[in-house]
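Quick question: what would this complex look like in 3D?
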Amino acid sequence: MAGDRIIATYWIETSHPLEFAAEVMAGEQSCGTFVRVPGETAELRERHAARVERVTELEIVDAPSLPHSTSPENHDGGFKRAEVELSFPLANMGASLPNLLSTVCGNLYELREFSGLKLIDLKLPRAFAEKYPGPQFGVAGTRRMAGVEGRPIIGTIIKPSVGLSPEQTAELVKTLIEAGLDFIKDDELMANPPHSPFSARFAAVSRAINDYAERTGKKPMYAFNITDELDEMLRHHDEVFSGGGACIMVSLNHVGAPAVAHLRRHSQLPIHGHRNGWGMLTRAPYLGVEFRAWSQVWRLAGVDHMHCNGLRNKFWEPDESVVASARACLTPLFEDKPCIAMPVIASAQWAGQAVDTYREIGSADLMYVCGGGIVAHPDGVAAGVLSVRQAWEAALAGVMLEDYAATHRELQRALEKFGP
Amino acid sequence: MAGDRIIATYWIETSHPLEFAAEVMAGEQSCGTFVRVPGETAELRERHAARVERVTELEIVDAPSLPHSTSPENHDGGFKRAEVELSFPLANMGASLPNLLSTVCGNLYELREFSGLKLIDLKLPRAFAEKYPGPQFGVAGTRRMAGVEGRPIIGTIIKPSVGLSPEQTAELVKTLIEAGLDFIKDDELMANPPHSPFSARFAAVSRAINDYAERTGKKPMYAFNITDELDEMLRHHDEVFSGGGACIMVSLNHVGAPAVAHLRRHSQLPIHGHRNGWGMLTRAPYLGVEFRAWSQVWRLAGVDHMHCNGLRNKFWEPDESVVASARACLTPLFEDKPCIAMPVIASAQWAGQAVDTYREIGSADLMYVCGGGIVAHPDGVAAGVLSVRQAWEAALAGVMLEDYAATHRELQRALEKFGP
């Protein structure tokens, strides 16, 4: 029954016949190897073997993408690429994310039969929805806490990333919130270092935010980076929650899924998921894992916001990959438990990408995080914030940026400075 | 002061001038980008900037190893490869493994200036030794508990990996321990699935081991795979410890360093570290991380045994990489806190690799784990175990395998069956 099986889709490259290669993957990650061992009965195979559900041939290339695959003598004409769908019985590992990963992202990457192997998609049985909490706040909860409806939450990052004292950070926060930002986050390099201890930074930043909230009735959301060992993460969560803070941030890859799930079950705040280190898992086109598969782990574990990079970013990632990532986060995992994580669009963002971002992603349920694109606006930070808001007004109204800029000075000035 | 800095060595490939590229990495991962932002004072840079300590030019290649690096127009003649050493002030993140990883394995993999980037080594300040526990049992503790001195601990893995019931597993364990194995482990695919619940498997396997121990006075070590969410891991640890078990196993990459460190502080048993998924992080020659860097994280977090693959293994990894990994685990991290993790040599191992393994790694402080190389011995499992012991006797005595086999029948028969 499909509902009790995990479906994992891979891109592969191999010098072997494709069907054989697919069976090697299935065997390695379930009950067998190619040598039958005692105890591997027909009944056991029937119940527990992974099945090759589909093999779709793609192109053939002359040279292996990864070295040290089976020696060329063995190959029957080039290195064949294909998409392969495997299914695993849920009974093999149960609804456990770490053990799911041992199955779908485990030793199969080591198989010498492959000169390329990438997990590109996952479809999980409902048991995972029952076992894992998913996001606690998601889009609606985050919007409510940030006080922003009908448009993206506009944010920025504290820079310089490291080196500011708690007091200097709080001074900067004052400037940023006075300028009208909805959301501010610590850099992923800034958690609890000796030069800016978490508690001191939280206290100083909170004072700045609370002063502003008392005066204006608006309380911007600040994502405090609590990435650390487990006890420290829980303690810092408690500090933020009891001190009236609104959001915690975690570097997902460096704490792992069990720590995030544990934090989620304890947490009373939205979890802002930072994906630094992600390039290591995906940047090679023929090794690792694609975002739409990998992000499911964190969404189930309970991340509310998920970094997805941005259009025309400063990094290596092409726009189509960014768009696919954001759309994946906005696509329900299960009908009755969608586990939507709010995509965080960041990296070299400014007013200029708003229209394209909305057109490509098809949603304004985003966090739109700009650095220089706001703070380096020629008329100051407040004008920078306005320029981004205006750009999103244009996007949501279906108006061209240039046309909207004709009657919106801050946007016009941004286009002049940052435009092509 | 060097003692307060983290030294990270990278292999890079870039179309940019090497010094420039190295400065981009250093800037991205510390206090700056190439655009100075307000607040990035000279004093802040002095205290917090990462430093480029060394750039060693290697070869130049025509084509980029990773796609989507800076467009060819920007490059000044080929894609240059180099080894780059950066140093980061400990003050930037403090002695926190997850935050160390955000620094040395973070967004720098995303930088478009690079068509290849791999972390190849790390040297950490003593503060990490003070903060983290390191292995609790290590080589001496493991040897004491397994009752094996002066030679590798000889082990095997339960196969088929998945599908056996607890009772079937215990039956197989009886055969394996009667045959004289020192060590048995669950497969990494077998933790707590519905068809072999952890508690039932532990109870059945323990009975088999305890019966044997009562009769013989020898108690083989069994590594129970407790990989799971955090509470389950702790509960299963407690079950193993209070039930007289000797070892727990964890799939490191899928639980993360904070979960391992948390488990270590709670644990009263050696932690057997399985590295499945590791291929994803290292198999691309020009992306990811090398074992000697990555393994330091787990050694500090407290892993006692570390999987290193084996010579002439069934996977992609060349022997020199396996040897370097095992040597790395046996090389002290700090003079007064060596954090030695016992290398686990596994994958297609049999008597045939013992002499080469000892010569190349230079130590018998190993776990030597064989599957078919023991259970498929033509004269049965006990003969298989003897053949491997004999091979290690030869290795330790400096005798050629073939010579030793002349007077040791089990070894002779193994060479006949598995030899070239």
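Answer marked as accepted. The CA atoms of residues 139 and 387 of chain B lie 23 Å apart.
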